[in-house]
Structure formats: structure tokens, C-alpha cells
Amino acid sequence: MAERGDWAEIKGRRMKEPGAAEAYEATRLAYELGRTIRQMREERGWSQTNLADVAGMTQSAVARFEAGGTVPSLPVLERLAHALDADLVVEVRPRVA
């Protein structure tokens, strides 16, 4: 049986596969967005059901989003931001070298 290698080696090989870097970045972004929404919701003392009701969504959709399981559309982000009385800011910035 071939040796499996450690996580860093496996990740390095996988990240060289076509589309892997883009998929990794999309997953990271979904996780960060979900974490931010969860934090804002919890700061208000709201349950996922409370947020879902105000945003016109289902509790399960909020749960999937907060877990980073879905990459939301801009309209969904706008509904969540509005429900949380927050501004949605989307920007594209040049990378700093």
C-alpha cells in the first residue's frame, strides 16, 4: 500500500489540480460570510429562526449559510444584511504586492 503522506503534502497536491484553488477560495469566502452573519445574529440574541423570519428565509437555509455550506447570492446577502440592520458592502480591490 502506498504511503498516504501528511496533510500538508496532500493539500499541496490537491491544490495543484485544475479548479482546486478557486473552489478553496469560494469555500473560504462562504465560511467567512457565514461566520459574520452568525456573530451578528448572536450579538442580537436571535435564534436562526428569528433571523430567518425577518429575512424571509427558512431556518435551515440560515443554518446552511452560517455553516459555510452555501455560497449565497447577492440578493440573499442583501436580505440578511437588511434583516440585521447592516450595510452590505461588496468591493473589488487591487491586491497588494
Automatic annotation (TrEMBL):
Query: Which cellular component appears as one GO term in the record?
Result: cytosol
Q: Which InterPro entries match?
A: Cro/C1-type_HTH, Lambda_DNA-bd_dom_sf, TransReg_Diox_bact_type
PROSITE patterns found in the cross-reference section: HTH_CROC1
Limits of the HTH cro/C1-type domain: 37-92
Q: Does the keyword Nuclease apply?
A: no
GO terms, molecular function: DNA binding; DNA-binding transcription factor activity
Q: Does the keyword DNA-binding apply?
A: yes
Q: Which SUPFAM superfamilies does the entry mention? A: lambda repressor-like DNA-binding domains
Which keywords accompany this UniProt record? DNA-binding
Protein origin, superkingdom = Bacteria
Question: What residue ranges carry the coiled-coil annotation?
Answer: none
Pfam family of the protein (one) = HTH_31
Q: PANTHER family per the record?
A: HTH-TYPE TRANSCRIPTIONAL REGULATOR (PTHR46797), METHYLPHOSPHONATE SYNTHASE (PTHR46797:SF1)
Protein name from the UniProt record:
Helix-turn-helix protein
Q: What is the organism of origin for this protein? A: Nocardia tenerifensis
